[in-house]
Amino acid sequence: QVQLMESGGGLVQPGGSLRLSCAASGTIFSINVMGWYRQAPGKQRELVATITSGGGLNYADSVKGRFTISADNAKKMVYLQMNSLKPEDTAVYYCNAIYFAMDYWGKGTLVTVSS
Q1: Cα Rg for the chain, rounded, in angstroms?
Q2: Helix count (H) and strand count (E) of the chain?
Q3: Long-range CB contacts (within 8 A, 24+) of 23-26
Q4: Which pLDDT score is estimated for 42?
Q5: CA atoms of 63 and 81, how far apart (whole Å)
Q6: How far apart are CA 115 and CA 109, in angstroms?
Q7: 8, 39, 75, 85: least buried by Cβ within 10 Å?
Q8: Would you state the pLDDT for residue 53?
Q9: CA–CA gap between residue 54 and residue 13 (Å, rounded)
Q10: In angstroms, how far is CA 44 from the centroid of its own chain?
């Protein structure tokens, strides 16, 4: 079992920055893939960025060049540095982990980009 807890969301002005954190806990050895997804009001959940245990990175086109995903495997943490935020980045951001072919999700953290 993997438990995930996100933190770091909040209200930020357009052009600002936020850093999201996700802590993984439970009896886990090595998580294959961790990532961030987001869901805006009235829209489907979408991928933001993922990082594999080998360090492979994947980003949605909409966030390339603005967001950076990173991980600290020893601490079982994954981070999302979000720069140059836009109003359309407003969403609930969810941490995701794939462990032994099963999906695990956090409860989400709200990011609001507004002036």
Answers
A1: 13
A2: 0, 11
A3: 23/75, 23/76, 23/77, 24/76, 24/77, 24/78, 24/95, 24/97, 25/76, 26/1, 26/2
A4: 94
A5: 11
A6: 19
A7: 75
A8: 87
A9: 34
A10: 16
Per-residue pLDDT of the chain (115 residues; tens, 9 = 90+): 889 999 999 999 999 999 999 999 876 667 789 999 999 999 999 999 999 988 899 999 999 999 999 998 888 899 999 999 999 999 999 999 998 888 999 999 999 999 9
CA distance 7 to 21: 5
48 close to 36: Cβ distance less than 8 angstroms: yes
CA separation, residue 93 to residues 27, 29, 33, 46, 75 (Å): 24, 25, 17, 10, 21
Q: Are 53 and 31 in contact (CB under 8 A)?
A: yes
